[in-house]
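debug: dumping io for the single-chain case to check the tokenizer round-trip. Nothing else runs in this session.
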Amino acid sequence: MELPFILVGAVIVGGLLGYALDRWLGTSPYGMLAFGALGFFAGVRDVLRRLGTGGDGGRAGHSSR
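debug: decoded output
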């Protein structure tokens, strides 16, 4: 149930950081677009990590030999 909030939250945080950077440097809208995209990719990565195999790197059931 928390996965959509993780994705949306990452995009919002990235967009706000980009917006603040744009206001400070006067580069509107490039910072917001770049950081919003970074937030999107970070959110997708986090969602996929949480949906994954539990942190074993996909090696569940395999021996270490």
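debug: round-trip ok. The radius of gyration is 17 Å.
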